[in-house]
Target: Polyisoprenoid diphosphate/phosphate phosphohydrolase PLPP6
Amino acid sequence: PAGAAAAPLPEEDCMKLNPSFLGIALSSLLAIDLWASKRLGVCAGEGSAWGSARPLMKVIEVSGHGIPWLLGTFYGLCQSDSLAAREVLLNLLFALLLDLVMVAVVKGLVRRPRPTHNKMDMFVTISVDKYSFPSGHATRAALVCRFVLRHLVLAVPLRVLVVLWALIVSISRVMLGRHNMTDVLFGLLLGYELYSVVEHCWLSLATAPALFALW
Model:
């Protein structure tokens, strides 16, 4: 009848009209992440605020790339004549390969595109490198940093330099426009945790004699 109160909306329609607080919060955080990452991409191009520092940032980029680390570790493994050194290098090689696989899997699942201000002029890329989440450089930096600090005897100044290198490599990813901030933060967390996996699965002459027989 006329003037009767309108029937209430079904509960599912109310949910569509009233997005959850969590959804709003996540959308807001994503927007802040994109905005801040673009503002911090000061070396994303030659015409950027710090464009003159871009060549230096690209050198730092190469220092955290997987190929130099893999080749250097493999070469050291082949040249080593110490069982203790071979054990450390073999586990570093395992850690680097695990890092590559895990980053590739997560990138393939998430498929987050790289920032729009990124220039695709990266050093030696593979198919999943068109995706941004997580930062493989940040993951590798955290993993290698923990590994080196744990298994190499270094003076305090050198230990500080290793930590600074990991931080600079990670920061450079945002400065170059390669990644958003959350890509780098998650990458650091993933690399930190991957080291724990390597420690748990540590390869030794007792647990993996066939691998040691190769060298």
Remarks:
- The two ends are 90 Å apart (CA to CA).
- Residues 21-213 form one domain.
